[in-house]
Amino acid sequence: MEPENLNSRKTDHIQLAFEAQATNLDDRFNYEPMLNAHPVAGCIPPLQLAGKTLKAPLWISSMTGGAQLAGTINRNLALACREFGLGMGLGSCRPLLGSDESLPDFAIRKHIGDQPLFANLGIAQIEEMLALGKVKQISTLVERLEADGLIVHVNPLQEWLQPEGDRIAMSPLDTITHLLDEVGFPVMVKEVGQGFGPKSMEALSALPLEAIEFAAQGGTNFALLENLRSDAFHQDMYEPVTHIGHSPHEMVKMATALCNRSENVIKTRAYIVSGGVRNFLDGYYYLRGIPWKTMYAQASAFLKYAMLGEKEVMEFTAAQIKGLELAYTFLTLKK
Ligand SMILES: Cc1cc2nc3c(=O)[nH]c(=O)nc-3n(C[C@H](O)[C@H](O)[C@H](O)COP(=O)(O)O)c2cc1C
After folding, report:
1. Which single residue of 7, 64, 141, 157 could bond 91 by disulfide (Cβ 3.0 to 4.6 Å)?
2. Atom of ligand 1 nearest to the CA of 301
3. How many domains are there within the chain?
């Protein structure tokens, strides 16, 4: 190091020492500085999803499509997945069931390369298509997007609170079981900000899904979002409903309890912890907490940078991965 750099660093240390007084210990982790050298790129164990490789256990949650800016946002997210070896879900592809107008917003296979990409439909649409014997339309959607499979979002609270929301006539469990009987591609199931309770988690985990994404209560919450779209009277009446749900922490415990059962009750191939995952340390904490193939996912955090541009989302993703590398190298979970 040049002497003048050393000098200026030492001056920084003196000036900043009084500001650098530690508060708020994050006591979720054991910090082990003695056991490893600094991480090098590629030190995170890769994992398989839908027969493809993720270089890090990080998934970009389903967002947006068919709206202004959606094409650019999806393209930026896809490019980040390609660059860093990640995977992503598209936002609801419902607009594509009736028309091709917004196809360019969703058709991002050319940008994402060979990384995992999943289409997305709501449970109400799946129920309707199955009832009408139109399952072929679902397969065609997946094929046209060159997707690796389909995410079904299960969102009864959101639909119920949405002024123009759909109503489902069957249990989502029956609908998804029926779907799995009819299609050959991988299927994931997610919520949209409330998560799943223990009985739902147990029943879902017993299905041969590619993954269950928690979309837990704690981050972007679509029940809350729909309630904000209502008139003042309905907002006031139903505001208490928006607090219902399960935190990612609680859902990690549910999944772990299922893994620890003496008989093997889990057929789903992976869990994705999402919904209020604030950063890579949260993500690492949650994913290491479940003794099953597990990733973490974020939606709004990626959206913030994908809206700004390609460079910004690349920087954000690179920072997440570097942070994860640090966590894998020096942190274990306190039990
Ligand atoms: C702008 C936006 C659009 C979304 N659209 C969808 C969607 O179409 N389908 C879906 O399954 N989830 C959708 N979600 C929910 C996310 O996939 C995720 O479950 C939720 O935002 C929680 O993640 P977060 O707390 O990291 O934002 C959307 C989220 C955002 C922020």
Report:
1. 64
2. 26
3. 1
For the Cβ of 88 lying below 6 angstroms from any atom of ligand 1, the answer is no
- The pick from 222, 246, 278 for probing ligand 1's pocket by mutation, whose C-beta has the most ligand atoms within 8 angstroms, reads 222
DSSP state letter for 35: S
Is the shortest distance between the CB of 193 and ligand 1 below 6 Å?
Answer: yes
Q: Would 22 be classed as within a structural domain?
A: no
Does any domain span residue 245?
yes
The amino acid sitting at 276 is: G
Cβ(299) to ligand 1 under 6 A? yes
Ligand 1 contact, 276 CB (< 6 A) = yes
Q: Which amino acid is at 291?
A: P
In a domain, 18, yes or no: no
Give exposure, 95-112, as e/b (b: 16+ Cβ within 10 Å).
Answer: bbbeeeebbebbbbbebb
Protein residue with least CA distance to atom 3, ligand 1? 63
- Cβ-Cβ contacts under 8 Å for 42 (sequence gap 6 or more): 55
Output the domain CATH number for residue 74.
3.20.20.70
Print pLDDT tens along the chain (335 aa): 566 677 788 888 888 888 878 788 999 999 999 999 999 988 999 999 999 999 999 999 999 765 678 999 999 999 999 999 999 999 999 999 988 888 999 999 999 999 999 999 999 999 999 999 999 999 999 999 999 999 999 999 999 998 889 999 999 999 999 999 999 999 999 999 999 999 999 999 999 999 999 999 999 888 888 889 899 999 999 999 999 999 999 999 999 999 999 898 999 999 999 999 999 999 999 999 999 999 999 999 999 999 999 999 999 999 999 999 999 999 999 97
Spell out where 64-198 has E strands. Answer: 87-90, 117-122, 149-153, 187-190
Residue 76 lies in a domain: yes
Phi, psi of 252 (to 5 degrees): -60, -40
